UniProtKB/TrEMBL annotation:
Protein name: Receptor ligand binding region domain-containing protein
Keywords: Membrane, Signal, Transmembrane, Transmembrane helix
Magnesium is among the record's keywords: no
One GO term describing the cellular component: membrane
The organism's taxonomic lineage, starting at the top: Eukaryota, Metazoa, Ecdysozoa, Tardigrada, Eutardigrada
Main subcellular location: membrane
Places the protein is found: Membrane
Length: 476
């Protein structure tokens, strides 16, 4: 038997006990290791969700949670070693013949949850056949970026990646984005120019110099503070001003610096805001009861459910309870519960009526995170959320405040990027076709978003380029 430890995972045991089904969730997350999925942040949400599930399904289900952690663990190696030992010991000493078990191998049939943003390899039909990425994946983030590019007809882009950020978050998105772009490149769908940089003046200037000779569309994968500093180089160089390093400029930019924001889109995980205030308050109160109040770090401007790891921790209990409850009429008492069956029932569906809102899980088991896109508002002179609850499957049209009422070309008209050749004309044709067929836009919307493009209709207009697909195959 082979156990593949997953640092940010929840393990599930379901067993029958008379008329009530006991659902036991085992966490191998560390207490505190500087990441959003640590128990100091997620355990309160998890316990509040368990209590809510027990109230809702009182006569059918009984939820409980087991937190397996060593308070001294601080590294991934420490956590992985303890997880394998603790879960193995639990398997051999705490299980019973009425329950079917599995972690991440075909020998143990438990559902495996990830409540943090998971690597694309987390969803693997052989290594993790029962995995559900409730916290989303890097593939999901890169797919959202590609959807935006498709929507605007931007097929020639430059990606700037900060290489020494505290978290590998941006590097992982970069790898997934480039991989998807490479798949599409053979079909003349995407052309990606990539460049890395360090957060210093010379490195950023060199990276932008490389990008501006090749593309008009630049994707910045870096913390917001660094993105703002890059805007200085793009818009107001050489008059660099220190105030651009302040994140408050997103909502309160100085009038003389507004030019820096007019062609800027900011994509972010959709925060709950004050829509779930009562639930946020319950989680905060539980956090204070479980840990020191000052250790939680929650504030009025940063409530618990604004963290995707915390919301995913709550959501996974909610969706699991719904699936187990739906499965009761088809389950024979004493036959055990299959994690594979439960994972299959969780996949390729939209969960309605969940406490924190509806969510969609792909056939591969990936939860699609809702995203917001912020654009500059000429009316309020501030960054506003242009799109709420951006979905993977359909992207409404967004109008940028360019002042010329249409979107910029993704390639330069002269210079190294090349003039509008027949290849570019074909690319622009696919821009219109993909906007219409893949994104479901109306003909009027397509014409509005691509009216500035010169395009050439290919000989075979009925054959369109292939699109990027997740590496994992659909569940049987």
């Amino acid at each position: 038997m082979r156990i593949v430890p997953q640092l940010v995972a929840w393990f599930l045991i379901v067993s029958g006990c008379g008329a009530i089904v006991n659902v036991e969730i085992i966490s191998i997350l560390p207490l505190d290791f500087g990441v959003a999925s640590a128990l100091i942040w997620t355990a309160p949400a998890f316990e509040v969700a368990v209590e809510a599930a027990n109230k809702r399904y009182a006569t059918f289900l009984n939820f409980s949670v087991v937190l397996m952690y060593n308070a001294s663990d601080r590294t991934c190696e420490d956590v992985s070693g303890d997880a394998v030992r603790n879960v193995s010991e639990y398997y051999y000493t705490k299980t019973n013949s009425d329950t079917v078990y599995a972690i991440v191998s075909s020998s143990w049939d438990w559902v495996l949850f990830s409540n943090a943003l998971a690597q694309d390899t987390f969803l693997d039909d052989e290594l993790t056949p029962t995995a559900i990425a409730v916290g989303g994946t890097f593939h999901g983030y890169s797919t959202m970026i590609i959807n935006v590019l498709l929507n605007f007809g931007w097929f020639h882009i430059s990606v700037l990646l900060q290489t020494n950020a505290f978290s590998p978050f941006y590097a992982n998105i970069f790898g997934s984005l480039v991989a998807q772009g490479a798949v599409n490149a053979s079909n003349r769908t995407f052309f990606i120019n990539s460049c890395t940089f360090l957060p210093n003046t010379k490195s950023m200037a060199d990276a932008l110099d490389n990008a501006k000779q090749r593309s008009r569309v630049v994707i910045i994968l870096a913390p917001a503070k660094i993105a703002l500093e890059l805007l200085v180089f793009i818009n107001v160089q050489p008059l660099q001003q220190s105030e651009f390093g302040n994140i408050s400029l997103f909502s309160q930019p100085r009038a003389q610096n507004l030019k820096a924001f007019r062609a800027f889109l900011f994509m972010s995980y959709r925060a709950s805001g004050h829509e779930l205030q009562d639930l946020n308050d319950k989680i905060v109160n539980r956090a204070k009861a479980m840990f020191r109040a000052e250790a939680t770090g929650y504030t009025a401007d940063s409530p618990p459910l604004d963290s995707f790891a915390t919301q995913a921790s709550y959501d996974l209990v909610d969706m699991l309870a719904q699936v187990v409850n739906e499965s009761l009429p088809f389950h024979a008492p004493g036959s055990g519960w299959s994690g594979t069956m439960l994972a299959t029932r969780m996949s390729n569906r939209t969960f309605k009526g969940l406490t924190a809102g509806d969510l969609y899980v792909t056939p591969e088991g990936e939860r699609c995170l809702d995203m917001d896109i912020y654009g500059f508002s000429t009316a309020s002179l501030s960054m506003k959320a242009r799109l709420k609850k951006l979905k993977h499957r359909r992207l409404p049209l967004v109008h940028l405040a360019t002042g010329i009422f249409h979107l910029p070309l993704s390639r330069l008209s002269t210079g190294e990027a090349g003039m509008a050749t027949r290849s570019q004309g074909l690319n622009n044709y696919w821009s219109r076709l993909l906007c219409k067929q893949q994104l479901g836009l109306s003909q009027r919307q397509v014409e509005e978003s691509t009216q500035h493009l010169d395009y050439i209709r290919p000989a075979d207009a009925n054959t369109r380029p292939g699109t990027s697909k997740h590496a994992a195959s659909a569940r049987p």
